[in-house]
Design goal:
It comes from Parapedobacter composti. This is MORN repeat variant. With about 375 residues, the protein is mainly beta. The chain is built from 4 helices and 24 strands. It folds into 2 domains: about 250 residues, no CATH class; about 100 residues, no CATH class. Helices cover about 10% and strands about 45% of the residues. Helix 3 packs across helix 4. The longest helix is centred in the last third of the chain and has 13 residues.
Length: about 375
C-alpha cells in the first residue's frame, strides 16, 4: 500500500472512516451550525477546525458558545467537545478577541495546556502537559518572539532549564504533503530561551520512522537560513517549521468550511492547487481565465494512470504545461466501495485565474468526482 494512503488510514481511522461523503449523501445542504440552549450556537468542525457538515464522518469537534452573527464574531464563553462528548477546550472571547483563561484537554481528560489571553495575545507563561499530567513545556510569547523557559522529555528529564539546554519535540503536520509524513521533529540548542545554531528537522512517518529533512539556522533567536532536503531547496525568508506545539483552534473564527470528501479533508485539493501554481511560476504573459476539466485513472493503491483533458487553456503552451504539471502528481486518494479500495476514474474540475499583479496563475474551486466509489 502506498505510504501516503497508509499514513492517512492511520491518521483518520479505518477504511470506512476515510471514504469521504457517504454520510452526507442523504443531506443536500451541509449543516455547519445549529441553535443551542440559552441563546448559544453549536458549530461543527473537523479536527483541524475547518467547518464540517454535522453528518460528515470527519466532524470531530462541536463548539457550543455565544456568537454574534451580525458582527460575525464569538463574544463570550465557549466549550469545544469531541465526538464522545468530552470537553477538549474551554475559553472566552470579548468583541471577537480571545480574552481570559484558555484550557485545552487531552482525550483522557487531563489538562493539555493552559494560558491566559488578553486582546487576542497570550500573556505570561503558556504551559503544556503530557497525557499523564506531567509537565512538557513552558514558553512565553512576546514582542521578541517565543521564549522557551523549560522543557521535559517523555522520560521526565528536564532538558531545558530556565532557558538553557537541548530541545526536541514533534509537531503535527498541518494538511496534506506529498512526502507522506504525519509529524515533523525539531531539535536543537536553546540559549537564553532562544533557538541558537543549527536546528535539525526530521520527518516522522507512520510507525515512528524518521528521516532527515533539513535544518534551520538561528543566531540567538533570529532566523538566518534553512534547507529543505526533500525538494533540495535553500530558503532565507522565514522559518518553515514551528518550534512549539501547533494547535488549530485559532482557525475556528475564520469559519472556513470543507466538503465532506477525503480530498478536501486531507488538504489534497489545496495541495493540488498550490502544486500547479508553483509549476507555472512567474509568467511574462498571462492566459485568459479558464475552466479546467480532466479525468485521471487511479489504481486502488493511489497510483495515477492516463490523464485526459476535457477542457483546458486555449493557448497550447499553457495547455501542454498544465498536462505536464499534472503528470508530476504521483499519488491520488483511491476510491472506496463495498469495503475495499478500487481502481476508478476521477473527474477533476477547477478554475484557473491570472493574478496579474503577481504574474501568477491561481487554481481554485477544485472538485474531484469519482465514477464508481467514494
Amino acid at each position: 500500500m502506498n505510504v501516503l494512503l497508509w499514513a492517512w488510514l492511520v491518521w483518520t481511522g479505518s477504511p470506512a472512516d476515510v471514504s469521504g461523503g457517504q454520510d452526507t449523501a442523504l443531506h443536500s445542504e451541509p449543516v455547519y451550525y445549529e441553535d443551542a440552549p440559552n441563546g448559544m450556537t453549536r458549530f461543527f468542525y473537523d479536527d483541524q477546525y475547518y467547518l464540517a457538515d454535522k453528518h460528515c464522518q470527519f466532524k470531530a469537534i462541536e463548539r457550543v458558545g455565544y456568537y454574534d452573527f451580525r458582527k460575525r464574531m464569538f463574544i463570550d464563553e465557549f466549550t469545544d467537545f469531541n465526538n464522545q462528548g468530552r470537553a477538549v477546550l474551554r475559553g472566552s472571547y470579548r468583541d471577537g478577541k480571545k480574552d481570559g483563561q484558555f484550557r485545552a484537554y487531552h482525550s483522557n481528560g487531563q489538562l493539555k495546556w493552559d494560558v491566559t489571553f488578553q486582546h487576542d495575545l497570550p500573556q505570561g507563561m503558556w504551559k503544556y502537559y503530557y497525557p499523564d499530567g506531567k509537565p512538557l513545556l513552558e514558553v512565553e510569547f512576546g514582542a521578541g518572539g517565543v521564549f522557551i523557559h523549560n522543557f521535559w522529555d517523555q522520560r521526565g528529564r528536564h532538558r531545558v532549564v530556565n532557558g538553557k539546554g537541548r530541545y526536541e519535540f514533534e509537531v503535527t503536520a498541518d494538511g496534506y504533503n506529498p512526502f507522506g509524513y504525519i509529524r515533523y521533529n525539531r531539535k536543537g540548542r536553546v540559549v537564553e530561551g532562544r533557538p541558537h545554531g543549527a536546528w535539525a528537522i526530521e520527518y516522522v512517518f507512520d510507525g515512528g520512522r524518521k528521516e532527515d529533512a533539513g535544518y534551520e539556522f538561528y543566531q540567538h533567536g533570529k532566523f538566518v537560513s534553512g534547507y529543505d532536503a526533500y525538494p533540495n531547496e535553500l530558503f532565507h525568508d522565514a522559518p518553515r517549521y514551528a518550534l512549539v506545539p501547533v494547535d488549530f483552534f485559532n482557525r475556528a473564527v475564520e469559519m472556513n468550511g470543507k466538503p465532506c470528501t477525503i480530498d478536501a479533508y486531507s488538504g489534497f485539493t489545496a495541495y493540488l492547487g498550490k502544486h500547479l501554481e508553483d509549476w507555472f511560476g512567474e509568467l511574462e504573459e498571462m492566459p485568459l481565465p479558464s475552466k479546467i476539466e480532466f479525468t485521471v485513472n487511479v489504481s486502488k493503491h493511489g497510483v495515477p494512470g492516463n490523464v485526459k483533458m476535457k477542457s483546458t487553456f486555449a493557448d497550447k503552451r499553457y495547455a501542454n504545461a498544465l498536462l505536464e504539471g499534472l503528470k508530476w502528481v504521483d499519488f491520488w486518494f483511491p476510491s472506496y466501495a463495498e469495503g475495499a479500495y478500487i481502481d476508478d476514474t476521477l473527474t477533476v474540475t477547477m478554475e484557473a485565474f491570472p493574478n496579474i499583479p503577481e504574474r501568477k496563475l491561481r487554481f481554485f474551486d477544485i472538485h474531484i468526482r469519482r465514477e464508481k466509489g467514494i
